[in-house]
Structures are given as structure tokens and as C-alpha cells.
Write a structure and sequence with these properties.
The protein is mainly α. Among the domains are: 48 residues, no CATH class; 30 residues; 56 residues. The chain is 53% helix and 0% strand. It has eight helices and no strands. Helix 1 packs across helix 2 and helix 7 packs antiparallel against helix 8. It is rod-shaped and about 175 Å long. It starts with a helix and ends in a 14-residue tail after the last helix.
């Protein structure tokens, strides 16, 4: 843009443009034409009373250099920082010195947490019982009692039959009457079994494992 065109652009006379050139406000290219943006920038930086013509844009503020954040002063610590953190009461102080009530697993009115604890305890005992059963350390109580009863009854029957089985042979060896000896042996065997006690029937209503 020529100086005359720039004068019309700014709405001033050519003499004013010449004055701006003398003041060093006019930015000229190598071919002598006016660099509009740079010139308007120079003109906009002047005080408002010395601008002249029409202002085409607001005054551009000169950017300020931002301070280095590393040079910023550290914030002042509050009085609370000097005094230190306020100590918080411990759980024992909050809850008081009262001890929790003793846990009774048979109580039907347990809290939700206590009922969950009872459930976990029983499940743990059940798992342990199953493990010991698989290891052969626990047996079914009803089956064990039935086996013991059958074995005791078989032993009793064998003892009751023993006098008749050996009476004749013992009588021949002792040169005594076989019938009399058999009766004597049977009497003493029955007395001995009575002292040991008769095997009772197993209680099938008892717990299955013990």
C-alpha cells in the first residue's frame, strides 16, 4: 500500500503520513510501500491524544514476561501447620472402655454380623469334619455302633456255645462225666458274660458322626 493509499485508509492527510514517517512510526517495505499491519501496530501504541485518524483496532497491550514459577515465594504456613495436626481419638477412646458382649452362637437374637460369624464357624466345622472323614479319622457313629453290637453279640454266642463244643473232650481228658462237666462250664461262662454285661442295641437316633 502506498503512502497516499494508507492516508486514505487512515482518514488523514498525506502530510500526517509524512510526519509519521519522520517520527519512525511508518513501517516501510524494501519497495517503499507501507506495511499496514506493522504501521498500525506502531500507531496504536501511542497515547490516545497523539494518534490522529481513525483507530481500526483496540490498543494492544504489551505482553508481560511471566515470572518463573521456581522463583515464586513459598506460601506461608498457617498457624495450624505450626501447631501440628490435631490428634484424632483412637478407636478405643471413641468406643469407650466397655468390652463387647460375649459371643453366644446359640443365641437366637444375634445381630447380622454375629449371625454371619456363626454361619462361617459352622461351615468351617463342617468342612473339617468332611476332611477328617475322608482321611479315615472320623467314622459314621451309627455304623460304628451297629458294627460293635454285631461283634459283641457274635462273641457272646461263641462263648455260650463253647462248653458244649469242648465238654466231651475235656471230660474224656479228666475222666469225668461229660454232661456234668458241660453244665459246670456253661454255668461259669454265663456268669462271666453276665459280669461283662449284655450288648445293648445301638441308638440309631444319635448323631451320625462323633
Amino acid at each position: 500500500m502506498t503512502q497516499a493509499e494508507f492516508a486514505r485508509h487512515r482518514g488523514v492527510s498525506k502530510a500526517i503520513v509524512t510526519k509519521w514517517k519522520a517520527q519512525g512510526l511508518l513501517a516501510l517495505a524494501s519497495d517503499g510501500r507501507v506495511e499496514v499491519e506493522a504501521t498500525e501496530w506502531n500507531l496504536d501504541q501511542r497515547p490516545a491524544t497523539n494518534r490522529g485518524g481513525t483507530t481500526h483496532r483496540p490498543i494492544r497491550a504489551i505482553p508481560r514476561a511471566e515470572p518463573d514459577p521456581r522463583e515464586r515465594p513459598a506460601p506461608r504456613s498457617s498457624k495450624a501447620d505450626h501447631r501440628g495436626a490435631i490428634p484424632q481419638p483412637s478407636r478405643s477412646e471413641q468406643d469407650g472402655d466397655e468390652e463387647p458382649p460375649e459371643f453366644d452362637p446359640e443365641n437366637p437374637n444375634l445381630s447380622l454380623a454375629a449371625a454371619a460369624q456363626r454361619k462361617e464357624n459352622h461351615l468351617g466345622l463342617l468342612r473339617r469334619q468332611e476332611y477328617l472323614t475322608k482321611q479315615g479319622k472320623l467314622v459314621d457313629r451309627a455304623e460304628a455302633e451297629a458294627a460293635f453290637f454285631d461283634e459283641a453279640r457274635a462273641m457272646r454266642d461263641a462263648w455260650l456255645a463253647w462248653p458244649a463244643r469242648v465238654g466231651i473232650e475235656m471230660a474224656d481228658a479228666l475222666k469225668v462225666d461229660a454232661r456234668t462237666l458241660t453244665q459246670v462250664l456253661a454255668t461259669y461262662v454265663q456268669q462271666h458274660l453276665a459280669e461283662l454285661g449284655e450288648p445293648s442295641s445301638p441308638d440309631l437316633g444319635s448323631p451320625e458322626a462323633g
